[in-house]
Structures are given as C-alpha cells and as structure tokens.
C-alpha cells in the first residue's frame, strides 16, 4: 500500500493497437494507461506524465538565456541582416554582422520606437546568440551539430527557467515513440520525421566507442554514427532519476 504522499509509481502507456487478432494479445487486453499523456506547460516545454521527463517542445525556437521569452512570444519572423534603422523587439531573429551565413542573434529586450536597446547591434547585453535554428530564413527547422556539440549546447542551455538540460539517451528518445513508431506531432511540432532526419542520443555504442547512437523518428530506426563526422538534430530533455 502506498503512503498518503508517496510518489506515484511510473506507469506504462497503452500502445496504439486497437485491433485484436487472437485471445490474449495486446489488442484484446489493452494494458497500460489511457488519457492524456503529455502536458503542454505553455513555456516552450512538454511534460511526459509517464516518465516525468520534460522536453523542449520546439528546439528551433530556443532563445538561450532570454528572460520572459516563452512559446507565445518567441521567434515570429526573420528580420534579415541587422540594421540600425529597424526597431527590434523580443523574439526578432536577425543575421549578425561579419558572418551572416552562420551567426544568428535574437533580441532579448522589448523596445518601443527609437528605444536604445533595440538600436544596438548584436552584443551580449541586448542579444543572445542562438545555435538552435537552421537559419534566419528557416524558423521551422532546428539546426544540426556533431555529437560533442549536441551534448555541449544541451548542457549549456538556459530555458524556461531551468539550467539542467541534457542530450537524451537512446531509451529516453524511444519512450516518446508509440507502437506504430510515431512521435506525437501535436506536442512535438516540427519534429524531423523525414527519411535520414536523425537525432543524436547521448548513448555511445558499446562495441565501437567512437560512434554514438542515433534515432530516426520516422520509423524508430536506431543505428550508430561516428561522433565527429555527421551532424544531426538534438532535442533537449531534463528530469528523470539517474541510477548509480
């Protein structure tokens, strides 16, 4: 018997199978929990009731270190290259000076017309560099990185009031796939599900330690890839209980 305030034990969700093909199969028994599995926290994060993990809803909209930035006021439109003739507000994404092909900055201060903060070029005071979106012209596609950079940018992330983000391990990734190898696009919009759109996990192959495991959300295809060669997507997660 559970004590009055004991934590609720983890529960497994039902699979997507609804048809029974014989007595005693999954379609007949339908074991597992029903109802809503995820909760949208309205701050750019998703809570998974079954695992108690928290996921970033849309990595391409991450504004590292920003204050007061959440899902409803994040990046709305690309503003092109920075110009001192534009009044920027929080959420505007622009191309920085000097290296417009690779540097993208996000304004963190809301300013009215002629506001001093809005007129400053990208710098540490008024802007934050983002490495999560593919480009200033493509705000629906997250960026890619090699394995080490994927781990580093997750560990360095400040988002939704939390600083303990990390790159998921392979089992954590698999936990958000259902029995039909699908990811819920309602709670994880813009997840890359096309062929060859892999996500890095933090898990190293035990028989080839220079390779890490990756997952394809299109078909829950799990495979390995050299850590320093390929570049893939990543989706930060937090929570859970580490084992010792």
Q: What is the strand content?
A: 15-25%
- Strand arrangement in the largest pleated sheet: 1-2-3-13
Q: Helical percent range?
A: under 10%
Mean pLDDT rating: 80
Summarize the structure.
Among the domains are: 78-141; 166-235, no CATH class.
Mind explaining what this structure looks like?
With 244 residues, the chain is mainly beta. Among the domains are: 78-141; 166-235, no CATH class. Helix content is 7%, strand content 23%. It has 3 helices and 13 strands. Strands 1-2-3-13 form a 4-stranded antiparallel sheet, with no helix packed on it. The chain has a 4-stranded mixed sheet with strand order 4-5-6-7, with no helix packed on it. A 3-stranded antiparallel sheet has the order 10-11-12. Strand 1 and strand 2 (45-48) form a beta hairpin. The model is unreliable at 1-9 (pLDDT under 50).
Write the layout of secondary structure elements.
Blueprint: H1 26-29, E1 38-40, E2 45-48, E3 53-56, E4 78-81, E5 93-95, E6 104-107, E7 127-129, E8 133-135, E9 138-142, H2 147-155, H3 170-174, E10 198-204, E11 211-216, E12 221-226, E13 237-239
Parallel strand pairs: 4-5
Antiparallel strand pairs: 1-2, 2-3, 3-13, 5-6, 6-7, 8-9, 10-11, 11-12
